[in-house]
Write a structure and sequence with these properties.
Layout: H1 14-33, H2 38-59, H3 62-68, H4 71-113, H5 119-140, H6 151-175, E1 186-188, E2 195-197, H7 199-234
Antiparallel strand pairs: 1-2
Helix pairs in contact: 1-2, 1-6, 2-6, 2-7, 4-5, 4-6, 4-7, 5-6
Amino acid sequence: MACHQRSASAPSSPRSNNSEVEQQLQSLSATISATVDIDTTCDGLKKLEVIYSCIDKMICTPGNQVILCQTQQRNAVEEELGRSLVVLDLCNAMQESFMELKMSVQELLLALRRGEDACDQVKSYIRLMKKAQKQFKKISKKTVSDDKDCRVMMQMAEAREVTISLLESTCGLLSKQIEMPKCSLVSKTFQKTKFVCQEEKLRALESSIGDLQTGVEFLYRRLIHNRVSLLNILSL
């Protein structure tokens, strides 16, 4: 759970930035396609932050600024600004969901300590996950990629798609942490309404949700920074 650390650095030259972005996007896309866990997802969020940092450096190079100021590319910049709002909305929605999920897990832990029936808390967690997944699908439908001629804009579009895929996979991972009637954290006892939850694993889940929340928060800040760089292009 290392989302709190931000030690990765981006290369400085435009050419190395291009290479770094392409390699990182390919690697991250392959990771998302494979079976991932929460730790891998946290690492993916850190990689995305580095990717967007590399892209931001490319946007700010004089050569790319000249290209992006051209009429055709300015239109692409405006379109990407619109789509960047969708990703920001997704990050906001995810952060709100993480807060609600952490509270749900905390309530579940409290119920267990008191020896109370935890069925309602489990159902609450599941309802929150379904709500998050439904909201995610609603927001993510608003973004559609178009063909772009400029390399940096193509990479921005690809990074956006990878970001959406990673956030979507996060919803899927969290939804599987607590299920009814069988799952890794909750198991039925002899009474149908009784569940025995492993406190240690629930605490680990609470910590994981916190790490994911931190990772999305850092990513959100980086996306804001990239958006400012694009807005500066339009003001030239």
